Amino acid sequence: MTQPTQAAAGLDPYNDTADYGPWRFLHRLNPLSKAAALLPVMVLVIFTRDIYTPLLILLLTVALILVGAHLSRRALVTLLVGLPVFVVVIATSFGLWTAPGDVDHSVILFQIGEYRFYLGAFLIGLATSLRLSSLLVMALLGGLTTTGPDMVRSMVQQLKVPYRIGYTALAAYRFVPRFGFELETIRQAHRVRGVAGGRGPIAAFKRYYGYVIPLLAGAIRHAERVALAMDSRAFGAHPTRTERFLVPFRVRDWVFVLAFWAAVAVIVVTSPPG
Amino acid sequence: MVHTTKTTETESTPDVAVATGKPKRSFRWRVVDIVIAAVIGVAAGVLFWAWGIAYEGFSGPLKAALPGLQGIFGGGWLFAGVIGGLIIRKPGAALFTEVIAAAVSAAIGTSWGVTTIISGLLQGLGAELVFALFLYANWRIYVAILAGMAAGMAAGVNDLIVWYPGVTWAFRITYFVSVAVSGAVIAGALSWFAVRGIARTGALGRFAAGREVTADV
Fold first, then answer.
1. B:34-93 residues touching chain A, CB 8 A cutoff
2. Is the pLDDT at B179 greater than 90, yes or no?
3. What's residue A99's pLDDT?
4. So where are chain A's domains?
5. Where do the DSSP E strands lie in A86-191?
6. Which residue of A has its CA nearest to B97?
7. For residue A238, how many other CB atoms are within 10 A of its CB?
8. Which residue of chain B has the CA closest to A236?
9. Average pLDDT in the A58-85 region?
10. pLDDT exceeds 70 at position A144
């Protein structure tokens, strides 16, 4: 973020912040402002039971993503095709699980034997489905436009999370590909030796439990070496630490948070009662 | 490697004075504590992700047999906090490990997205609470089982509010009980045995949890 020319030249592998110009403004915001704008709304959405509120919040968030985020073709397809399909499928399946006593029985959508699928049940399912998909899309807004390192940096710089914890977690996060690879190696080793073969949930569970100890023991040995390396470089010896990359919290971050909250407030106020 | 590292610690004291038999406990996190907790979290996150894929396969028949019984697989997402707590033995370890694991599995890509992190927070709090109630001084198997069960109950309440609103009471009770049982068995008892297994590999030489086991031999 502070040295865009360097990042563009690919000179610094640790500065992975991308900048796609002023229109794709979500990439230029502090990660915390996206979190601050979205988290209260997520909690609000969890406790809504109607259709109107999550639907409008969903549309608002999708619009923000379409304008403000640089999307890969895959993300675009997920958003424009996958999302509506997800909403309908989840609405139907949650409708099936709804307690039939509590719903409006006036309209029957379809009937299989003695089972009647009421419009009321579908609407309750739809409310659930919209609630979940608006949560997922709000998460996407942050996730598509924020890098993990920037998130950690801003947590350390603005939220004053102890850097010993923040940067260690970041270092550990960089091991994910390594553990994925190790898990695959352990799987292959077990398969070659015919450990816990067979089908069905019990065999699957035994197989899964067999991965836990070797994976964790390997992970801990690796972590111990990393901790030793960090200790030997005096990581954590001082209460403060200079930053290589600054992630500032600017006026535009406040504007984004307040504008998002205002838009959501309008949606909540205008939602029909009941 | 394990044995040569002891003298190089920059932090003041190791968890327990080894040979003197005089326990000297410190709740301050050493660098190695943070790294191990974070790394266990990351490794568990990879396992959570694999579990999520497996879950899609074998929860189907159970959902059909008795709706709510799929909660019996919930324990697969609860063990990180208990293992972290049992190994690190410091305040916040269970919470930290479970949250990291949830965040990593969300980052790799579960079908539940960022809601995973909220679940992880609550599940970690459940386990943490039990370890706190025993004043971070008791690490026997029954404490592990209680911690796993508490994580399961937290998970159950969260799932019922977020994922299953408006379901029947039979579903709610079945789901809640099966998640709690799953937490107690998978996240509690199995985690305890897993930590003992890891300790037996010698990987926990820098932790009280590891010295306890290897001292028996």
1. 34-36, 38-47, 50-51, 54, 57-58, 67, 76, 79, 83, 87
2. yes
3. 66
4. 19-150+250-274, 159-246
5. 108-112, 115-118
6. A169
7. 9
8. B31
9. 92
10. yes
For chain B, give the mean pLDDT: 83
* Neighboring chain A residues of B87 at a CB cutoff of 8 Å: 220
pLDDT of residue A100: 67
Q: Give me chain A's average pLDDT, please.
A: 84
Q: Find chain A residues with C-beta within 8 A of B44's C-beta.
A: 216
The proportion of chain A whose per-residue pLDDT surpasses 90, expressed as a percent, equals 32
Torsions phi, psi of A272, nearest 5?
Answer: -65, 140
Task: Flag if B40 and A204 touch (Cβ within 8 Å).
Answer: no
Say if CB B72 and CB B63 are below 8 A apart. no
| A232 interaction partners in chain B (CB closer than 8 Å) | 8
Nearest to B51 among A49, A208, A237 (CB): A208
Inform me whether the C-beta atom of residue A173 falls under 8 Å from chain B C-beta atoms.
yes
Whether residue A83 lies within 8 A of chain B, CB to CB, comes out as: no
Helix, strand, coil share (%) of chain A residues, nearest 5: 70, 5, 30
- Read off φ and ψ for residue A158, nearest 5 degrees: -100, -45
Task: Tell me, yes or no, if B32 comes closer than 8 A to chain A by beta carbon.
Answer: yes
Q: Which residue has the tokens 């001082």?
A: A238
pLDDT higher than 50, residue B74:
yes
- Classified as helix, coil or strand, B178 is helix
> What is the Cα–Cα distance from B58 to B52, expressed in whole angstroms?
10
Q: Give the A:B interface size as CB pairs under 8 Å.
A: 163
d(CA B122, nearest CA chain A) in Å = 14
Confidence band, pLDDT 50/70/90 cuts, at residue A10: low
Q: B212 pLDDT exceeds 70?
A: yes
Decide: helix, strand or coil at residue A52.
helix
Determine, for residues A211 and B54 on separate chains, whether the beta-carbon distance falls below 8 Å. no
Q: Which of A151, A186, A211, A224 has the highest number of chain B CBs within 10 A, making it the mutation to test binding with B?
A: A224
Q: Is residue A3's pLDDT more than 50? A: no
ipTM of the complex: 0.73
The alpha-helical segments, DSSP class H, found in chain B are 31-65, 79-88, 93-108, 115-133, 141-162, 169-182, 191-200, 208-216
pLDDT surpasses 80 at A16:
no
Q: Is A96 exposed, middle or buried (0-12, 13-18, 19+ CB in 10 A)?
A: middle
Classify A242 as helix, strand or coil: coil
- pLDDT for A253 equals 95
